[in-house]
Design a protein that fits this description.
Blueprint (H helix, E strand, L loop, with lengths): L2 E7 L5 H11 L3 E5 L1 H4 L15 H13 L4 E6 L4 H13 L3 E8 L2 H11 L10 H8 L5 H6 L6 E6 L4 H15 L1
Parallel strand pairs: 1-3, 1-4, 2-3, 4-5
Helix pairs in contact: 1-8
Length: 178
């Protein structure tokens, strides 16, 4: 069975750190990060070139994912929850084991981590005003509201825990979901 493990959360919550630890423990998973599909629609400051152009990056990502099989760890942010839940439901309807992980952490700590990290893993500059817009999204509320009616499984992950512990939580969630 194909597995799609989806990490979603605010910037700076620790998704990329968790992803790296997961892949070290589970090299059979391929990684897909929405950023690498969205970035071509962003200017050098990290803003969408034209309003809502970054949704095209999400659509490009899903087109790519539909051509894949096997075990995939998908890292997305908090943008476009309606599109994401609709597309993830299509995977589930096509026989995939889809588990959406809501990565949660106190917003003060998220802001601290994000500003400390800056853009170490990205090549666009850190801009506080854009980050402030992103951190005020209705997350995880939008996913909590949209997933159950679509029959999508969600798991809450406390990102203040050690990353190795969170890898174990994800392993348990996948075993439980099958």
């Amino acid at each position: 069975m194909n597995t799609l493990l989806v990490l979603t959360g605010l910037p700076g919550v620790g998704k990329t750190t968790l992803r790296q630890a997961w892949i070290n423990a589970h090299p059979d998973f391929q990684v897909v990060d929405v950023f690498f599909f969205v970035r071509k629609y962003l200017d050098n400051a990290g803003r969408a070139i034209v309003e809502n152009f970054d949704i095209r990056g999400y659509r490009d990502m899903y087109a790519h994912l539909f051509s894949q099989s096997g075990n995939i760890l998908l890292e997305i942010g908090t943008n476009f929850p309606r599109l994401n839940t609709r597309m993830l439901k299509r995977f589930q309807d096509n026989g995939w084991n889809v588990v959406i992980v809501l990565c949660l952490l106190d917003r003060v700590e998220v802001r601290r981590r994000h500003s400390k990290r800056g853009t170490a893993d990205r090549d666009i500059p850190y801009r506080e005003e854009y980050y402030a817009q992103r951190i005020h999204r209705n997350f995880p509320g939008s996913y909590r509201a949209m997933c159950p009616p679509r029959g999508l499984q969600t798991r809450i992950l406390d990102m203040s825990c050690e990353v190795e512990k969170n890898v174990q939580h994800l392993e348990y969630a996948l075993r439980e979901s099958q």
